[in-house]
Amino acid sequence: MQGSLIDYVIIGVYLVGIAIFGIISGGKQKTVKDYFLGSKVVPWWAVCFSIVAAETSTLTFISIPGLAYLTNLNFLQVTFGYLLGRIVVAFVFLPAYSKGELKTAYTFLENRFGGKTRSFASIVFLFTRLAADGVRLFATAIPLKLMIDIGYPEAIAIMALVALIYTYTGGVKGIIWVDVIQMFTYLGGAILAGIFLLNLIPGGWGTVVSTASASGKLSILNLGFDKGFSGFFSQPYTLIGGLLGGAFLSMASHGTDQLIVQRLLATKNLRESQKAIIGSGVIVIIQFVIFLIVGVMLYTYYGAMDVKSDTIFPKFIIEVLPPGVIGIIIAGLFAAALSTLAGSVSSLASSTMMDLYIPFFGKRKSESAQLKISRLFTIMWTVLLVFAALFFMNTTQTVVELALSIASFTYGGLLGTFLLGILVKNAREKDALISFAAGIIIMIFVITFKLVAWTWFTIVGVSATLLVGGVLSSVGRRVKSVER
């Protein structure tokens, strides 16, 4: 499809404007702390919006409406789990983090266990984030290729360049303020599409409710006991699986992943960061309600069709929406992509700099030299993410499943190691390293053979890590007492 001139103008103005806004809002940075932590002066509500934008990729924008179109509203059970997980992060993880001068999520592991655990966790994060966000960056190119008739490499390069401009110059402060705009842009695009849908459906909202009800599309709760024991764990969207799976996934992604923790560390104090993380959970529920309702309306408009879930929303945008509105929706897609991409680049650069470079090579370097190197790492990770996205262009697996699987390999082990440090007082660095590795190995086995649905992945990884770590620390304590 060739876009109209007005669509290109809207997209071009948006991309240029958002880059300029990021540069201005970021201000000048004199130190690495300014660059990666925003001098800890960012208000909690801005961080709250930024967290939501960072965790919302183009995958979410196009796949969640498609999920509701093909199934129902059972996914909402997972979003309530997301909120529960953030509450745990707010009152268990963040107080533990606030006891020390943390610069990354993994500084806590060094304070608790030692430098080797911090380095290992950082390296695991770097490789996982690079692969998972390479997939997300490629996924963004899929609808853009269809909508404005450019190739995958061009779409990837445009987004990477725009994100690099304001990430390089504005640092995390610029990223957070841009994310505030991005969140309202993509949510506004989804709401606008929903309004058009509602006006196109004869009878409006009444028809949507009656059609969706008759087809079971408005079902929210699924106890999941009707398919037996094995069937219970193979269903992703059950009440227990959704609440527990969503909670543990949110604890891992928002309590141990530098992408989100970096934003929380930019707030003024513990109370501000707690309000930001819990507030983001409430907004995420509202956001997913909007995306899912759009999917239900798409079902009412089209009826049942044999299509892939990721294509139904782009199909409506391309074939039905008028010029100008298409440009706004595509700007929303760019917003969802850029918020994740810029956050990934900054978190990758900050972890590389603070967890690996400064401890081993940069302790004697001046603040200005460290800042220059930090910006070089920003460029390096942007380029690597582009190459990762190009690498996944030939994948045959569904991009949503691929991105989820990559993150799930390590989230359980990472969260389990953090919980080991908080809950098991006698755990040593050796116990943490072995249990972390064991958690990853077990998850490779679980995911490869698809033993449970994806909502159970993080729970299995955490349980395995804590079990191994708990046994090792118990044995170590007994050996130590015998030696005495």
Walk me through what this model shows.
The protein has one domain: Sodium/glucose cotransporter (Up-down Bundle), CATH 1.20.1730.10. The chain has 19 helices and no strands. α4 (58-70) crosses α13 (270-302). With 484 residues, it is an all-alpha fold. Helices cover 79% and strands 0% of the residues. The longest helix has 49 residues, at 152-200.
Query: What is the CATH superfamily classification?
Result: Sodium/glucose cotransporter
What oligomeric state best describes the polypeptide chains here? single chain
Number of helical segments? 19
pLDDT average, as an integer? 84
> Radius of gyration from the CA trace?
22 Å
Shape: globular
At the fold tier of CATH, the topology name is: Sodium/glucose cotransporter
The major β-sheet equals: none
Number of domains: 1
Query: What share of the residues does DSSP label as strand, in percent?
Result: under 5%
Number of strands: 0
CATH class category label: Mainly Alpha
CATH architecture: Up-down Bundle
Sequence of secondary-structure elements: HHHHHHHHHHHHHHHHHHH
Uncertain runs are none
What structural class do the secondary elements suggest? mainly alpha
Q: How far from one another are the termini?
A: 76 Å
- Helical percent range? over 70%
Quick summary of this structure?
By secondary structure, this protein is mainly alpha-helical. It has helices at 5-26, 32-37, 44-55, 58-70, 76-98, 107-112, 115-148, 152-200, 204-214, 228-234, 239-255, 258-264, 270-302, 312-319, 325-362, 367-391, 399-423, 429-448, 457-483.
